[in-house]
């Protein structure tokens, strides 16, 4: 493939300590896409791997100019790696996927076929997910339900990395934190047509999973930010005013309880810790929540206004700046 020819597809793969898998994934992806005569580039983003993933990627890039490598100075996380891949991708369609061989490259042509039906985003659904139930599948199901309710974009599997995006849908999307899984919600806000198809999911055979139960809670916290950015970014008074009114009502209710206790049971306010305790807890929680949301907005303004990225690149191979 000539460097000045835009490929049809850009495959974006975050890599962190996947030396046992990344070579196999590259070979499998090339086999699938070449067999269907789909022009492509494979962007591997080495997110500060500590094993020999970087060496394997370097050799693959030497052998094939379609294999492009971005290496971070340290580990910045999956979202930062996907953001870097999106930034350097040249394809008309951009498809992120995991490096652990749990996503199947054979599903890529199916995603493309669904896009050709007139959709802007096609999301993979790991209906028969090969992961532990209590630590992965159950928390994921709860998170997917909650995300669908909050964003009003109904998908079964927000956490599936394997998705297909038309380039114009994500060109102006800035990713931070755990935001990569919420791209369909942002796209829907801009009027994009979204579809979902079942994709294969294989059990991890080698290497170690980088996901844990705690990550589900981080995603739920990011969901608050997504709701703020998508629903209240231009009208924050709706959210802050609503919370203020709600807390005021709570204060009134507690005041009524204190008055009842005073006149019915003779408990005076200065002897009743209930009022101060309730007010303190509610105010503390509200202040912390608001500080978190405001902090998220401020950090986005900082990155976008200063042109900074949430990652630092150490080196690249076969990448056109």
Write a structural description:
- This protein has about 325 residues and is an alpha/beta fold.
- The protein folds into two domains: about 10-230, Spore Coat Polysaccharide Biosynthesis Protein SpsA, Chain A (Alpha-Beta Complex); about 235-305.
- The chain is about 50% helix and about 15% strand.
- It has helices at about 20-35, 55-65, 80-90, 110-115, 135-150, 165-170, 185-190, 215-230, 235-265, 275-305; strands at about 10-15, 40-45, 65-70, 95, 120-125, 165, 195-200, 315.
- An eight-stranded mixed beta sheet has the order 7-5-6-4-1-2-3-8, with helices on both faces.
- Strand 1, helix 1 and strand 2 form a beta-alpha-beta unit.
- Helix 5 (about 135-150) packs parallel to helix 8 (about 215-230) and helix 9 packs antiparallel against helix 10.
- The chain is elongated, with a radius of gyration of 24 Å.
Runs with pLDDT <50, length 5+? none
Q: What is the succession of H and E elements? A: EHEHEHEHEHEHHEHHHE
Distinct helical segment count = 10
CATH topological fold name of the largest domain: Spore Coat Polysaccharide Biosynthesis Protein SpsA, Chain A
Shape: elongated
Strand adjacency order, main sheet: 7-5-6-4-1-2-3-8
Strand content: 5-15%
Give a brief rundown of this model.
The protein is α/β, with parallel strands linked by helices and 321 residues long. It contains 10 helices and 8 strands.
Key traits:
single chain, eight-stranded mixed sheet, Spore Coat Polysaccharide Biosynthesis Protein SpsA, Chain A, 321 residues, alpha/beta
């Amino acid at each position: 493939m000539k460097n000045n020819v835009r490929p049809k597809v850009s495959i974006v793969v975050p890599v962190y300590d996947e030396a046992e898998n990344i070579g196999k994934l590259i070979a499998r992806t090339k086999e699938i896409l070449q067999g269907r005569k789909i022009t492509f580039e494979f962007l591997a983003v080495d997110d500060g791997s500590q094993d020999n993933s970087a060496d394997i990627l370097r050799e693959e890039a030497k052998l094939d100019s379609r294999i492009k490598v971005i290496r971070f100075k340290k580990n910045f996380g999956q979202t930062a790696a996907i953001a870097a891949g999106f930034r350097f991708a040249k394809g008309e369609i951009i498809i992120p996927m995991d490096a652990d061989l749990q996503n199947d490259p054979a599903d890529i042509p199916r995603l493309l076929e669904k896009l050709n039906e007139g959709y802007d985003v096609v999301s993979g659904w790991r209906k028969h997910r090969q992961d532990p139930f209590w630590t992965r599948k159950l928390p994921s199901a709860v998170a997917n339900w909650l995300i669908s309710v909050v964003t009003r974009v109904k998908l079964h599997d927000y956490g599936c990395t394997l998705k297909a995006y038309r380039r114009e849908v994500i060109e102006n999307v800035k990713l931070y934190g755990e935001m990569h899984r919420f791209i369909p919600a942002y796209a829907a806000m801009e009027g994009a047509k979204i579809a979902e198809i079942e994709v294969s999911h294989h059990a991890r055979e080698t290497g170690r999973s980088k996901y844990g139960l705690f990550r589900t809670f981080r995603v739920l916290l990011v969901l608050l930010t997504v709701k703020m950015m998508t629903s209240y970014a231009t009208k924050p008074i709706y959210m802050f005013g609503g919370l203020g009114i709600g807390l005021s009502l709570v204060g009134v209710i507690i005041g009524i309880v204190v008055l009842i206790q005073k006149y019915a049971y003779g408990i005076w306010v200065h002897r009743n810790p209930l009022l101060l305790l309730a007010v303190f807890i509610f105010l503390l929680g509200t202040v912390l929540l608001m500080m978190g949301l405001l902090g998220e907005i401020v950090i986005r303004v900082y990155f976008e206004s200063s042109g900074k990225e949430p990652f630092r690149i150490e080196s690249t191979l076969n990448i056109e700046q």
